[in-house]
């Protein structure tokens, strides 16, 4: 019971509790009005820090999704343009195939070349015009470009798109014009040893892009473009790198063939096709007879057919033409007394006459072409220039053969090469498209992950920042009740000092 009138402890105590209840009631009311448990740092300092960081990450994840979608859009535009370029390349390929047919006159091939040039111009325009948001995509500028996909610094994906312009679009090639060697006084085995037209396992090297191909040859064999091309094409490592090879061999005698009168001792011609130094067949002509170009061609073709050899003999303007599918062509000639035969009438770039019981020989190595969409190195030490027969620098790197400069169809030879070149370019374009497809798949995966991560991050933030309405409503009701009871009790406390008056009566 209060016995003092200058200080009412009960009233003061009730007032303080009412103020406390009012603050709690206002906080609860604010939370119910905003839906947030944390409306300022005083509500939960640590919780505010954590929630703000989670909100930052969620917002950044959303932006990463938008960035990735822009990356997909750019890749889709580039891939669509490359699809158009692919269509143009297919048309060029078919026109080159048409031009390769020798039923075409020069005017036909000129017209086809004009069509191809127009298609090349179209490819160039597509490559130079393709862009996204003002950035060129296929002219070589879009290299090492980053798509920032993550919520943190340096979370980025690098994108590079090679140039698809007519000058840059092409293949890498190593081309060798098969060499010839001859000697009117040497047997074939002596000739290839003396001129280094044979493979020597102790000193020669045959590698392409670091892959050793020497197992394709045996020491003492002749250098053979077809054998090397087959070794390249059968090698799984080189296939995986997109490196392919082809070989052809056409020997056109430099001198027109004159009928040979066969003297005493007759005439024998051993014919070799491929790298082996054992004759595939022998042509024998008795003394007292004569050998015409027609007879020689018939005999060669007959024997080649009997022995299942890829060798065809022809007459072109009175000159002997020998063709294989890239295999080396070699002849060893033994002329008896009174017989003279010029090696230059038998093999391209050969020279010297065999006569008087001597033996001479001549060799023509095939032409080798190695193509790839990507650059590659090679080492043909000992089997190529300046020694050997492949007609290629001993070591080096493939030369870039551009679409613009090398798509020629004016001759059968050029048209055939253009087909090979376009095929390699198509593989390059397909790889570019495949890479862009992989980028799109990667970005779509990133988008999916970002979207799920953003949802989970916002859920984590919500648990910290947002109010639990059921719980807060219960607290609000409690504080409201306390406020009402507090006000009632304060009114009672204010009446207590009046009891002192009873003592003063």
Automatic annotation (TrEMBL):
Keywords, in A-Z order: Bacterial flagellum, Cell projection, Cilium, Flagellum, Secreted
Pfam families tied to this protein: Flagellin_C, Flagellin_N
Stretches assigned to the Flagellin C-terminal domain: 419-504
InterPro entries associated with the record: Flagellin (IPR001492), Flagellin_C (IPR046358), Flagellin_C_sub2 (IPR042187), Flagellin_N (IPR001029)
Location(s) in or outside the cell: Secreted; Bacterial flagellum
Domain Flagellin N-terminal positions: 5-141
Principal subcellular localisation of the protein: secreted
A GO molecular function held by the record: structural molecule activity
GO cellular component: bacterial-type flagellum; extracellular region
Chain segments annotated as transmembrane: none
Family: Belongs to the bacterial flagellin family.
Role description: Flagellin is the subunit protein which polymerizes to form the filaments of bacterial flagella.
PANTHER family recorded: FLAGELLIN
Protein's UniProt name: Flagellin
Species of the source: Persephonella hydrogeniphila
